[in-house]
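Hello support,

Our group uses your service weekly, and this is the first time we've seen a run hang past the timeout. The protein is Diphosphomevalonate decarboxylase. I'm not sure whether the cause is the sequence or the server load. Input pasted verbatim:
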Amino acid sequence: MPENDKQSLSMVTCTAPVNIAVIKYWGKRDEDLILPINSSLSVTLHQDQLKTTTTVACSRNFQQDRIWLNGKEEDISNPRLQSCLQEIRRFSRKRRNTGDSTSDVSGVSHKVHICSVNNFPTAAGLASSASGYACLVYTLSQLFGVESEQLSAVARQGSGSACRSLYGGFVQWKLGEQLDGKDSLAEQVESESYWPELRVLTLVVSAEQKSVGSTSGMHASVETSQLLKYRADVVVPSRMEEMIRVIRERDFPAFGELTMKDSNQFHAICLDTYPPIFYLNNTSHRIISLVHRYNQYYGETRVAYTFDAGPNAVIYTLQDHLSEFVQVVRHFFPPEVTQAHHVMIITLNSELKRDINMEPTPKGIRYIISTKAGPGPCVVKDPNHHLLGADGLPKKSVISD
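Update from on-call engineer: The timeout came from a worker crash unrelated to the input. Re-ran successfully.
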């Protein structure tokens, strides 16, 4: 472990990615262990655009565990956070007790300071809890020498979809059958380099915190939605098989259609929940309409949308269609700020604009992020990028006013 002799600090910084499900996870069969009622599959997005960065330090001089999230100190007693901390410490002690000498775990009994920041809006439907807990668990594992194959179950207990953010590329989270959840784990289907032409656009409609959190929303759906049980028992098993097949065949039209159908069904379940849950807004519905009109113009599925528990759209397409569709979005939803990096500016076909036949919605989309599939968590080697200083407290640049 990296040592800071001045303060007897051990400190590690890591980053972890966001993942966006194309076969959705919605509903738990065990609330405490966070065991899903269905399997799910996601695409890990590249950390150049979307990531969580976490620094963890431990020291014999720390009086208590502490955590700072996005510049503000939070309650360390959060049950899910405590579950992750306890599990990592348990695995670390287990390695020490079995005589494993490959890692220094002497600091496992020391208190930790945790500092974590996202470079994207938190709690706005952009999978912040997934990248956050994946980053926390991965960073703790690097600090305390816990093996990577043990991390999926730990991250899952922080946030279910966090287990998928421990891998790059295309990742499935298996439902599992065991009551203790030991077989409800994530595994990589294909790496981030498997489908190099695939591109991802995040259309940020709102950065505000959603009115119904995912945890409470899932609970309500499990309790009241008959459609949810049908989805879990009948629909998802075959969809998982089909989705893995079309990814491996790089069949974008089939991938896109399946992605959109699964997103639609997820939000239909939210409407079937009582009282109903509304994660999509008017702009979200207009984006859905735009995608279908664009595909209809070309007579094939060139772009596909998916929406998690929030109004922000994630669009999948191929490199050949990226520039044109970004221009279509800019035309019909003139954004306040554009972050669609490396996208060539082109002139839109007037016939295409006429056939889409929608009135522009200025400022309907706050900004656009252009990205692609990316790798899983990684260690930040440069000590200058630590979020905590030599005193174990957040650096001034991290703390919000």
